[in-house]
Design a protein that fits this description.
Strand content: 15-25%
CATH topology of the largest domain: TIM Barrel
Radius of gyration: 30 Å
Number of strands: 12
Number of domains: 2
Strand order of the largest sheet: 3-2-1-8-7-6-5-4
Helix content: 25-40%
CATH class of the largest domain: Alpha Beta
Order of helices and strands: HEHEHHHEHEHEHEHEHEHHEEHEE
Number of helices: 13
Shape: elongated
Length: 345
Amino acid sequence: MIDLNELTKKVFIVAELSANHNGSKKVAIETIKAAKIAGADAIKLQTYTADTITIKSKKKDFIINSGSIWDGDYYYNLYKNAHTPWDWHKELFNVAREEGLICFSSPFDFTAVDFLEELDNPIYKIASFEITDIPLIKYISSKGKPIIISTGIANIDDINLAIKTIRSQGDCDIAVLKCTSSYPAPINEANLLMINDIKKRFNVIPGLSDHTLGIVSPIVATCMGAKIIEKHFILDKSLGGPDASFSLDRKQFKNMVQAIRDAEKSIGAIDYTLTENQLKGKDFSRSLYVIKDIKKGEVLTDKNIKSIRPGFGLHPKYYEEVIGKKVNKNLERGMPLKINFIEFK
């Protein structure tokens, strides 16, 4: 059993295959291998057919008209063209495992869950538009596997109900990904400040399922505390397909992975102690120096000592304390002032 908390000690980067195989199993396999090379930790599939996700109907309700890149098409046609054939799944899971990737999927009905159980699917993803399908969520939860949820179309009540449903079925790891269900999503609607709130409010592992263009949002999300980043991945955008426009190609995905890893390093930890490099930097700090020759027995004044760089002299916090005190030896201009040069009697 996968421990999602252990898996997300570093950011868990998921390459979403979705429809980016464009109907070719060979392309799907090549995409999985390319995702590994690009630095992904996992590949995610979608398990449905047109008939398990909608019905074939010419009625107005079944024409897409939501301001998306798919407007004008029928739901049935979109999903018929975009689905990943079920008879590919076993081979795709095996290829991913051979490449050292975790492979998991989003099921869209009960039969998909049963099918994925036969393949020992290790994690279940609840897609954005399925967050309100409580019977499906309940059935997925009954399998006792870690669950990742995208919030896409969900309000706070939807999220609460989904999490409550999962927890009613037992104790399993839950991750909730901030998601904007627009394709592509405007970057000004990413609202990445919600990531930390999701963690605190729902006591879950937070993350981002990103549909914005480019890699800015995943990097910012990492700095906001996201522990899972999911992004659509395509071999080459020239392949086209339903999801190509908001997917990252190999070079872009690799750049994103590197940027996320660098962002993780830059976050570091809460630690006010100084590193070796920072300690070396103390050389450039201010300290008290002799700026005019001083003879033994003379008094320190603002004319013969000063707070300047470098930092090898007495700490500047002692400036007012030593002004007016006599020195016990001859001091030359450019010498760092030391506490043992001063008479305090």
